Amino acid sequence: MANLPRTSPVFETDKKTLTNLLETIREKVKSSFFSEALLQKILSKVRVFTLRIENRISGWLESLRARAKKNNTDKVKDDQYWEKLEEKKKE
User: Fold this and answer.
1) Model pLDDT for residues 35-70, shown as the tens digit of each residue
2) Is 7 inside any structural domain?
3) Helix (H) or strand (E) run with residue 52 in it
4) How many CA atoms lie within 13 A of 86 on its CB side?
């Protein structure tokens, strides 16, 4: 066993390599936080915008339905179709 070559430990690293690795990780973390914060801000604004549009459309639909209901009730009051049909049947 004395004749086996001496090997270096697996986890032995150069100090410069470790420092460079930490620096690149820090840069990526900083940039990802910035980009994530920006993305969250944009998505939040888009969500608020769509909620406002949805609320406005809901108001329009409500007014259209009320108008349609009012118009339909007027037609139902003036509708004499069934009465006329019964009179024709009696004749």
Assistant:
1) 888 889 999 999 999 999 999 999 999 999 999 888
2) no
3) helix 15-78
4) 4
Burial of 66 (0-12, 13-18, 19+ CB in 10 A): exposed
Domain count, the chain: 1
Range of the domain at 72: 17-90
CA angle (9 as vertex; 21, 28 as ends), nearest 5: 10
Distance in angstroms (rounded) separating the CA atoms of residues 67 and 81: 23
Q: 75 is written with which tokens?
A: 């037609």
- Which H/E stretch holds residue 9? none
pLDDT in tens, 6-34: 666 555 556 677 788 878 878 877 777 77
